Q: What sequence folds into this?
């Protein structure tokens, strides 16, 4: 059964177009908000436009938000409608960026990218390396299959020691220091909480082997930046690839910008373009479910606020 | 049965030592060239020494070359002896570098590596991309499993249209131009022969979509360099990652060094360290086969020149 679904606001043309396609692909009829039973929110940057858009609706039942984390919309949540979000949608893109960063480190691509002259061979084979991933969420779940063909020895560190699919072992964060000396690549892909702020500081960096790489796609606050700067300068680890920094954005002139063994990407593990590519089929699937009355993906718990 | 095998020349001590170990491990007796029935060539950089070394042999049957691509030795090939090479030996290391280069291109890492300031989001998702690989040898065989988790649509182009394991389709090189417009990433991993010199020139680069990346880990001579420089400058492709160039080494000041959308690595897809590690057990196995009369690995087709 086709149902009327609207896409709003129209302030981001690319996104509006992609979401409109998703509505049609999902089997719904694209309508104005006044006639809509479902609404796809199509500009993550404009939560403040919500009251005005919503004022025009009369038959609304369901709102699809584009976010993985919905904090910008949290104050608009209420029990009048069913809310869904983009939880888990972007993890495949972030996992790709993690593997890109790992391989870039192993093959010295950051160094070669900066060269303007033919130089000597640097680089390691990733196959059979020991990879430790801090965090057992969606990014890790999507990363491990990408790593599988390299036959790495993978340790997942999480709050519990419940086994993680694809990991050679799963250990609780209390045993982090046992694993660090046996780690060739350390990936940070965990949530930032009071317990995980500064979880990687001088002691942890010193415990890693000198050939180890740090990859951070979680939050800049997980790493004590000054300790990382010192470790990179001292060569106590081989390098760091950071998609997130503290402070963020990293200010011009910060020592990390000029560290030879540091690659910084500006929080691009998923870009709006990538995001749209992933969000479109996801929203199409939720539209399909809405039309046929199946359970929606990524529901927001209004009481808990996520 | 043990047979007499020599290792020459002795101009690269590390390599001579590793190959001498391989001879012994393989069950042969290490002898001087004058007494040798087999010869392991132990300096890739010195093909010009070949006539002098070979002049001392009297009972020679088999020559093992250390190369994956044997062009430096091509003019020495003849039907007097059985020739084998290092075809496929370095493929696992090279395949890793190919994936590193592909992901680096998709995630704009070469650009971010050159930045000293926080910038905007650039980057694509590799998953579900259309990857075309020119060449159906060992690199391709090792690359496709690494690509498998990305669920790319993979076309292998080779001389025949014999199916290639892991490829969605295999087509003959005569149909290259049909595939180019449907290619997001073009990987060159074929042998350099008279037919493949300059196989990627202006016409092929123009046929690729504007978002396409070229990755070359084969030989610089496959690409008409001036045409690539022009295509990169015009933005008719999105970028190129080159482990091999023509000329090679790429001279200082060459326009490719300053192209914003070009990543150059100095022929490091396998480093000598990685290479020897991979070559030694391979040569030991060929020595064993030579001693017991089994079919040798990586035979050179003297007529085809690879």
A:
């Amino acid at each position: 059964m086709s149902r009327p679904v609207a896409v709003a606001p129209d302030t981001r043309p690319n996104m509006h177009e992609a979401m409109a396609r998703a509505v049609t692909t999902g089997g719904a009829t694209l309508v104005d908000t006044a006639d809509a039973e479902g609404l796809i929110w199509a500009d993550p940057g404009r939560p403040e436009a919500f009251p005005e858009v919503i004022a025009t609706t009369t038959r609304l039942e369901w709102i699809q938000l584009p976010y993985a984390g919905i904090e910008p919309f949290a104050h608009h949540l209420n029990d009048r409608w069913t809310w869904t979000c983009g939880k888990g949608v972007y993890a495949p893109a972030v996992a790709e960026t993690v593997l890109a960063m790992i391989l870039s480190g192993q093959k010295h691509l950051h160094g070669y990218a900066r060269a303007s002259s033919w130089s000597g061979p640097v680089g390691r084979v990733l196959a059979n390396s020991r990879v430790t991933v801090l965090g057992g969420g969606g990014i890790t779940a999507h990363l491990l299959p990408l790593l599988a063909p390299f036959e790495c020895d993978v340790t997942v560190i999480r709050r519990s020691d419940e086994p993680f699919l694809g990991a050679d072992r799963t250990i609780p964060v209390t045993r982090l220091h046992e694993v660090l000396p046996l780690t060739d690549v350390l990936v940070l892909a965990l949530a930032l909480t009071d317990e995980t702020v500064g979880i990687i500081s001088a002691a942890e960096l010193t415990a890693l082997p000198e050939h180890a790489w740090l990859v951070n796609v979680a939050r800049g606050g997980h790493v004590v930046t000054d300790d990382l700067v010192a470790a990179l300068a001292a060569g106590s680890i081989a390098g760091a690839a950071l998609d997130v920094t503290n402070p963020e954005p990293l200010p011009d002139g910060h020592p990390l910008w000029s560290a030879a063994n540091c690659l910084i990407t500006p929080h691009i593990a998923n870009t709006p373009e990538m995001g749209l590519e992933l969000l479109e089929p996801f929203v199409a699937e939720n539209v399909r479910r809405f039309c046929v009355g199946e359970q929606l993906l990524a529901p927001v718990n209004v009481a808990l606020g996520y």
About this structure: Chain A has two domains: 4-89+271-292, 91-264. Chain A touches chain B through 55 residues (CB under 8 Å). The first strand of chain A starts at residue 4 and ends at 8.
